[in-house]
Amino acid sequence: MKHPVAERGFSLVEIIITIVIIAIALTAAISGWGTIARHSSDVMWQTRISYLGQAYLEEILSRPYDELTPLGGSPACSPCTPQGSFGPDGGEVRSTFDDVDDYHGLSESAVGLFNELVTSGGIASYRGYQVDVSVTYAGSQVGITNELVKQVTVTVTPPQNTGQSPVNFSALRGNY
């Protein structure tokens, strides 16, 4: 005589517990995916910010130290341009800036960097970026005569819809 095989399924409690566990796991997975999707473009924004900061610093630091510094940089200017006189000299525009401190107070849309390269008004992917430049004497910060070193600070502000904060880039330029 054969014994009947008892078939056993899942109870209602086991099914409900399984559904709750799956729901919790899916909620966590979808939440994580949303965070990843929201921040997937951060690297692109940060790369553009870094490129702009570097490009502006390179342009500024390639200029002579001061109006009063002789060609070749030696001997150092004495006296140098007073800090209160930093900024464009009479009639100068960005394309004619000829020394580091002419850039002091420059505030422009980042496409200004590219306007000379692209006649259509700059490179579209850099629209919305703002660049501000400050130049100060910094010799006392490094323990030498104040007028021998200028600190250039470039602040790049990304478009407001990126969620990124402004970033400062700074470099020292010696009178040599």
UniProtKB/TrEMBL annotation:
PROSITE patterns: PROKAR_NTER_METHYL. Keywords: Membrane, Transmembrane, Transmembrane helix. The chain crosses the membrane at residues 12-34. InterPro entries: N_methyl_site, Pilin-like. Pfam families: N_methyl. The keyword Transmembrane applies. This is Putative MSHA pilin protein MshD.
